[in-house]
Amino acid sequence: MHKKIIGFVLFCLLISSCSSLVPSYLSSIENTTSMPPIENAASFTHSPISKISSVPTDSPLYPYSYEVLRQKQYGQGEIKIEGNLISDAKFSRYLISYPSDGLKIYGFIDVPLASGKFPVVIALHGHINLNVYRTMDYSSRYADLIARDGYIVIHPNLRNYPPSDNGPDQFYSGSADDVLNLIAIVRKQAGQPGFLGKADATRIGIWGHSMGGGIALRVITLDPGIRAAVLYGAVTGNLALRRFGFSGANQVYAQSHPEEIQLISPSSHYGEIQAAVSIHHGLSDTTVPPQWSKDMCSQLMDLGKNVECFFYPDASHTFGGETEQLFNQRSVDFFNKYLR
User: Which three-class secondary structure string do you get for 99-115?
Assistant: First the structure.
């Protein structure tokens, strides 16, 4: 009888002590109960880290491994002006193009009219129906807002988004290449005569929404020179949870080799991130599960990374109204802190 009482007391003490281990960012979220139920919520828990050290070279997933990605040479060619676009009172906007993996990638750049050197932010759009996508789409308003605060902002139309060329994009690896090539070219052209003469290549940040946030995650795990990243309703960096981006034989192979999927996932390489990270997600997002951002926030905190996390009650996948104003202000404040 005494043993049972002692055991019960020890159990109570254990439960009490464990409660102190709950991440503080979760306990501070307002109205988390307003988050809609997520189907198959159990599948959104962390996948175990693989016990193998690298993807076998004969695996069909080897071309997407970090061993290969880290050895690639980025930044061949140059960014060219293709035309003038409607400008703003604080910046000039140009249509641009640049080469990436043999493809021609288009986009636009906002260059402040003021004199001086300016940080550079790469803004990445989310997935949009290709039939309706335009260069000046929804994400341009976020790019313009950052530019008005004194930044050079470059917004690429990622591969397969017109008028950019079409190309392979398994696991968003092709789109990540487009961004890594763009950043490498910016570093070469920064400070040179021309439209990038005002660019400071030592102060580069990245902004990504949804799919663009997932691409940004791969980029910041590969490029330690990026100083700040804003992730807005971002897809998870754990490819095993996304269950998309696979095609053909690779889909069958991936299902039977989850340990390799884990190895090519950005989430297994969060330890390489040097950038400060700002995570934002609406708790009523039915497009990208908010739990993905909560998991990401927890993982980065556990790794001791410089990360801040904001979760917005009743906000959906793309913000609006006062929520968007707050998000925009937090984003600009974040870039000002780490890129100024």
Answer: EECCEEEEEEEEEECCC
Region of 93 (left: φ > 0; alpha: ψ -120 to 50; beta: rest) is: beta
Indicate the pLDDT class of residue 30, thresholds 50, 70 and 90: very low
DSSP per position, 133-172? --TT-TTHHHHHHHHHTT-EEEEE--TTSTTSPP---GGG
CB atoms within 10 A of CB 136: 15
| Per-residue pLDDT band at 67 (split at 50, 70, 90) | very high
197 φ, ψ (degrees, to nearest 5): -65, -25
Position 241 confidence tier, pLDDT thresholds 50, 70, 90: confident
- Domains of the chain: residue spans and CATH: 58-339 (3.40.50.1820)
Q: Residue 295 is encoded by which pair of tokens?
A: 């998991």
pLDDT for the residue 242:
74
Measured between alpha carbons, how far is 319 from 107 in angstroms, rounded to an integer? 23
Q: What is the pTM of this model?
A: 0.84
The structure tokens listed for 46 are 């962390």
How many angstroms from the chain centroid is the CA of residue 46? 18
The upper half-sphere exposure of residue 220, i.e. CA atoms within 13 Å in the direction of its Cβ, equals: 31
Q: How far apart are the first and last CA of the chain?
A: 66
- Rounded to a whole number of angstroms, the CA Rg of the chain reads 21
